[in-house]
Every structure is written in structure tokens, then in C-alpha cells.
């Protein structure tokens, strides 16, 4: 991935689409898994595709089909889906300053996923202001269509794929976490980010181990944000005191 500004000869959305292509390595296998599981849970192939098109929320979709198949009340399905997606309350404000104002924000945020957020957080600051919105749209569309396409493959041909190549079914669930770790890796170069990621991971693991898997992601994300904010405040206060000593 290039760290330089977008070349003038290439439209920003093309650059975003090109740099979003590596996401397919994580999105497509997991989307295939979702399509297969949705059909096995009693949904039709078209219903699975519509869910991926309109909901487009990864883990929430797996929870949605499982709860609906189990006969859970609609209000509980909605509450649990919103709880898992509460992390977007943190994502949106963090990239909003880089994209500026737009009347298309409600539509643009539909394309905000964990991986798009991680990629945007690295790339948007490196791009000229006039290219950022186009880049985001290109990357988001590639991710969205890959998720829809993977769901279609899983819903229509997922059973045949896993029967012919059983190893595929074992590997698919790990593709997206591995991709997300790769996207986060550059942040470990910063001590603040390394400590924040370590704290977030530890908290999520503790909640998951004790059986609170649905709450692990939003609570860990909130705690991670607080840890980073606290470390940033401490660093600023230390720098201010050093300046006072040096100029005192």
C-alpha cells in the first residue's frame, strides 16, 4: 500500500477501490460462511443476500440468523444487533474530520466496517483533502460488493464447496480476524496504540472467556478508547510540565 498522495492521473475512487481489493481476502470467505449458515438456518438464498445488502454488519448477521432461527422475539434481536454494532459510535467520529461535510453521510456510513475504519484511519490522513471522499467511496464499495458476492456464493453453492473441500470450511472463519490484525499491525509502532490495543484485546478476551461474547466487542472498544484518551492526556501533561521546567 502506497503511503504517498494519490497520483493526479488516477481518480481518487479508483485508488480507493484498488487499495480495498486486499479486503476481499477476509470478506469473501466469511461472507460465504454467512450465506451457508443462513440457508442452513431456514433462510432462502435471496433472503441471505438481502440481509448482507441492507444489514451489512458481519457478526451481527450471524447473531441475527441464529436468533431468528431459534424463535427469539424481534425486539431482542434488534437490541442485540445494536449492542454489537455500538462500536460504530466510536468509528464514525474518528474518521468524520477527514471526510468533511456531506449530505450523503447516512449512505456513506452504511459502508463503514471494522476493516474500512482501520484502512481509512491509516490512509485518509495521507491523502489530499479533495481526494479523501472519493477514496472512501471506492474502498467502501469494493468491500460491500465483495460481502454481497461472498454471501451469494455461500447461499447458492456453499454446501457443495465445503463438501468437496472440507478444509475450506475450517479456514473461512479465521480469514477476517487475520485480515483485521494485518490492518492494525502498523499501529503497533506507536507506544500509545500498542498499549491501547493490548488493553482492548485483554478486556475482550476476559469477557469472552467468561461467556459474555456479545458484550466483549462494544465494552472492549469503549475501554480501549478510554485508555488511549488517558494515555494521550498523560503525555500532554508531561510535555506541558517539561516545557514549564525548561522555560521556567
TrEMBL record:
Residue ranges of the TM segments: 27-50, 62-84, 134-158, 164-185, 192-209, 215-231
Keywords, sorted A to Z: Cell membrane, Membrane, Transmembrane, Transmembrane helix, Transport
InterPro entries found in the cross-reference section: Brnchd-chn_aa_trnsp_permease (IPR011606)
Compartmental location: Cell membrane
Membrane topology qualifier: Multi-pass membrane protein
Family of this protein: Belongs to the AzlC family.
Full protein name: AzlC family ABC transporter permease
Amino acid at each position: 500500500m502506497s503511503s504517498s498522495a494519490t497520483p493526479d492521473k488516477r481518480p481518487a475512487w479508483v485508488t480507493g477501490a484498488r487499495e480495498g481489493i486486499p479486503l476481499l481476502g477476509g470478506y469473501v470467505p466469511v461472507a460465504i460462511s454467512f450465506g451457508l449458515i443462513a440457508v442452513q438456518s431456514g433462510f432462502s438464498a435471496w433472503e441471505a443476500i438481502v440481509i448482507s445488502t441492507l444489514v451489512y454488519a458481519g457478526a451481527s448477521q450471524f447473531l441475527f440468523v441464529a436468533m431468528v432461527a431459534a424463535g427469539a422475539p424481534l425486539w431482542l434481536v434488534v437490541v442485540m444487533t445494536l449492542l454489537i454494532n455500538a462500536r460504530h459510535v466510536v468509528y464514525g467520529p474518528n474518521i468524520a474530520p477527514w471526510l468533511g461535510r456531506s449530505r450523503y453521510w447516512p449512505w456513506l456510513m452504511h459502508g463503514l466496517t471494522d476493516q474500512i475504519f482501520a484502512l481509512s484511519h491509516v490512509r485518509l490522513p495521507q491523502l489530499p483533502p479533495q481526494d479523501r471522499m472519493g477514496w472512501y467511496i471506492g474502498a467502501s464499495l469494493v468491500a460491500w460488493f465483495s460481502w454481497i458476492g461472498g454471501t451469494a456464493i455461500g447461499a447458492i453453492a456453499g454446501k457443495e464447496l465445503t463438501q468437496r473441500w472440507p478444509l475450506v470450511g475450517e479456514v473461512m472463519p479465521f480469514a477476517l480476524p487475520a485480515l483485521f490484525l494485518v490492518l492494525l499491525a502498523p499501529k503497533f509502532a506507536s507506544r500509545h496504540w500498542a498499549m491501547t490495543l493490548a488493553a482492548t484485546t485483554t478486556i475482550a478476551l476476559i469477557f469472552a472467556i467468561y461467556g459474555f461474547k456479545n458484550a466483549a466487542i462494544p465494552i472492549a472498544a469503549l475501554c480501549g478508547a478510554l485508555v488511549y484518551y488517558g494515555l494521550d492526556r498523560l503525555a500532554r501533561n508531561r510535555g506541558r510540565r517539561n516545557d514549564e521546567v525548561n522555560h521556567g
